[in-house]
Amino acid sequence: MQTIDLATTPLRELNTALQAQAAQTNQTEWQILNPKGAHAIAVGLDAPIEVTVRGHTGYYCGGMNKQATIRVAGSAGPGVAENMMSGTVVIEGDASQYAGATGNGGLLVIKGNASSRCGISMKGIDIVVHGNIGHMSAFMAQSGNLVVLGDAGDALGDSLYEARLFVRGTVKSLGSDCVEKEMRPEHLDLLRDLLDRAGADARPEEFRRYGSARKLYHFNVDHAAAY
Amino acid sequence: MCGIVGLFLKNDSMRPRLGEMLTDMLITMTDRGPDSAGIAIYGEGDQLKITVQSDSPQTGFAGLDADLAAALDGPVTMRVIDTHAVLTLPDGTEAQARAFLLDRGLRVMGTGHSMEIFKEVGLPRDVARRFGLRAMSGSHGIGHTRMATESAVTTLGAHPFSTGTDQCLVHNGSLSNHNRMRRVLADKGFAPLTANDTEVAACYLSSRLAEGADLGQALEGTLQDLDGFFTFVVGTRTGFGVVRDPIACKPATMAETDDYVAFGSEYRALADLPGIEAARVWEPEPATVYFWER
Amino acid sequence: MDRPTPPSTAQTLPRNSHTWSPETNAEIRRAAETGIYDIRGGGAKRKLPHFDDLLFLGASMSRYPLEGYRETCDTSVLLGTRFAKKPIRLKIPVTIAGMSFGALSGPAKEALGRGATLAGTSTTTGDGGMTDEERGHSDQLVYQYLPSRYGMNPDDLRRADAIEIVVGQGAKPGGGGMLLGQKITERVARMRNLPQGIDQRSACRHPDWTGPDDLEIKILELREITGWEKPIYIKIGGARPYYDTALAVKAGADVVVLDGMQGGTAATQDVFIENVGQPTLACIRPAVQALQDLGMHRKVQLVVSGGIRNGADVAKALALGADAVAIGTAALIALGENDPKWGAEYAAMGTTADAYDDWHEGRDPAGITTQDPVLMARFDPLEGARRLRNYLAVLTLECQTIARACGKSHVHNLEPEDLCALTIEAAAMAGVPLAGTDWIPGRTGL
């Protein structure tokens, strides 16, 4: 286990060391101490290493991650795992706004609550939130899956494209062009797998599925109020 | 565009440490606002106080207490702290004193029975050192680091803005209808003195409080009447409030323990508070008013 | 318009209203018929005060010119010297502005890359990601970081030479893009992760930051991902150039790209293009003033775009304080866009060469702003590259001609005092005296 203490090591050194790890590294386990809300921790990684951050992180922790498994033993600030390509990011506490924004792939697990705009413009990432999510989550979400064990805030899935949203609790309100959809067997299978991978104690049958009504895909003056 | 910090103590035994905690929080937010910094601190005292600022304090404050006492025909004390002076006045003399001070070319930072305001151009660390913020005690306080958007980088353009007795407001964001609102407020007798959009919000709250609204109602009103992006943190003599606009893009983090309620634009600002590990940490909801009264 | 022969008797002629012109009335009828605003490409078409309204004074007795063919006039530009380990080095003060694959065809992007590389300058990606064609053919490639983040990924970020964070563009400051379904082909849709054939609306704000205080943190992240090597540009539309430039600098930009309202777009509402933003001419001085007030002029470089057409425009932008200019529309025209040789096809679409702006419809006869394989095949990227290289060379030679005439051994030594204005409007906007006077409206007394 390699340990880097951010109280004594500059961020640049930390990220340089983590980014230098190759696919065939033997230094696969890293822990980061004293993050104290610092920004851009463990960004741009591209190796199958395991990084544990002991404490709370600031903006963009795990940004653009590829391959790595990053665990935050604390809460994460805005834009955690933004634009992630692959790998896994796990937040033990809560996540601030824009969690998993524009993510292309990989799995983001938030054990606590996620704030507003969770999964905004997501492009293929899978996000599993054990708690609740805030308003405008999955805004303009393009593809991927957002699973919420708790409740969703206002305007869920506004201007949604092809992302799939699964919510176990209540939805305060649905955004423009987002509708509840039938839960078919393939969705239950997908959900079971995601819950399993996210270590979530829930049954797929407890969830409702939401998706795009696809009414905003082509301009129509009769839908002008929704634009 | 800025960093905000705020601390409202529930545990009175922490009062001697208020300045120290707020100063650390403020300095942590330097990246968000390197242009100027300011703090409003609510301490002890029943007497009316005016905080004034002078760019040349040596001449500006020379003999000020005696001259003001003569003008008001009552006792006046003065405490000079760097470019600021805190004057205590007899009750009921605020308007007269304000006119006298403005006439002497001094800038009024704020008035209050418990509130004192200190703000200057420069890095938060330097501003805090100049005013000795670390040594100040009190029940609650609000601080701000500013990255100026449109209005000038000046002392008067720094936050907090105080437009009513014991009232202050700090802001992160950018209002989009403040020029129109400025004219409405001027007609009501609450004309902002600077071109800063935040002062418009402060004047708006003062006007609503003067009309009889409580702090919660006044904050609710911002959601109807002010447009744009904002997170406001406000202080009154006994209260501490927070509101975010309905879109709520600007960051805001809050923490509450048995000892305090804390606000920070980022978690970093809260990271060193005592007992933060066990605090309830959350983000204020959009278009939702939060306030605490003692 | 053909006027009817006046009748012999006393009778008034039919008279069109300036307010209710035939174009205005036609647009009302079109809106009533379709229920959708007019979407088009390009920049503002209305008449605006522009570089044409400025003249250089030249040298004579009090200043001495340089010899055109013997005495050097340097045109090199270094962009990104503030923080980046590897600044961009341009041989000429003209770069290619961001234009997306999707809006343009793959071969058109390839031609831009080849032509710019031959001329010693950089090209820029657009909303839709980086293609191998343009990366492979561009010696120096600027990767745009846009609100939509279509195609954004760390590998392309690392293989870019600079990163341009797009906050706004001159054609639509405050707005997102509109790319209609006809152009969202299988490949475009895949790169953007969208269903094929849908009308695509791009976001107007970035999804994970708002405002300069958050942008500073975003820049930190991008620098950390790319090892602090690459210059970070911030592109702003001509909205509030003084404040926006100052805030870009405070947020940590290496380069500010300032796009005036004549700057083009692939597709946006006409009402937006024609009514929001400021002319390029009016944007430059406030931006330069902001840099000077912060002590950052020439330290944070300024790239100006929006309506640059010839070497005189380049020289004038530099004289007003820019470090370089960027061209988009002019580069497309150099490649062959709107060429009169396709006149019959333009006529069939109800337009003419030089007026065609429905780039979003994907039916470009020149094969440039299209994804239609048949139309694309009309465009030869090697021929396009040669034409672009020639055009860039002419822009540079023209700019040098003027700079030498003003006695400058480097084009960056052109200054506002080398200029005068033909109109009061241009004098006020550019902050240079009205010709024959020492009057700068708004700055000096009458």
From TrEMBL, chain A:
The Glutamate synthase alpha subunit C-terminal domain, residue ranges: 41-176
InterPro entries: Glu_synth_asu_C, Glu_synth_asu_C_sf, Glu_synth_lsu_3
CDD domains cross-referenced by the UniProt entry: GXGXG
Molecular function per GO: oxidoreductase activity
Pfam families, sorted: GXGXG
Record's protein name: Protein GlxC
Organism: Paracoccus gahaiensis
TrEMBL record, chain B:
Domain of life of the source: Bacteria
Keyword line: Glutamine amidotransferase, Transferase
Short name of any one Pfam family annotated for the protein: GATase_6
InterPro entries listed in its UniProt record: GATase_2_dom, Ntn_hydrolases_N
Gene3D superfamilies: Glutamine Phosphoribosylpyrophosphate, subunit 1, domain 1
Domain Glutamine amidotransferase type-2 span(s) in chain numbering: 2-294
GO MF, one example: transferase activity
CDD domains linked: GlxB
Protein name: Glutamine amidotransferase
Species for this entry: Paracoccus gahaiensis
UniProtKB/TrEMBL annotation, chain C:
Polar residues compositional bias, start-end: 8-22
Biased composition (Low complexity): 115-125
Domain Glutamate synthase: 84-408
GO biological process, one term: glutamate biosynthetic process
CDD domains in UniProt: GltS_FMN
Region ranges (Disordered): 1-22, 115-134
One annotated GO molecular function: glutamate synthase activity
Keyword flag Lyase: no
Gene3D superfamilies tied to this protein: Aldolase class I
InterPro entries recorded: Aldolase_TIM, GltB, GltB_archl_type, Glu_synthdom
Alphabetical keyword list: Oxidoreductase
Family: Belongs to the glutamate synthase family.
PANTHER family linked to this entry: ARCHAEAL-TYPE GLUTAMATE SYNTHASE [NADPH] (PTHR43819:SF1)
Name of this protein: FMN-binding glutamate synthase family protein
Biological source species: Paracoccus gahaiensis
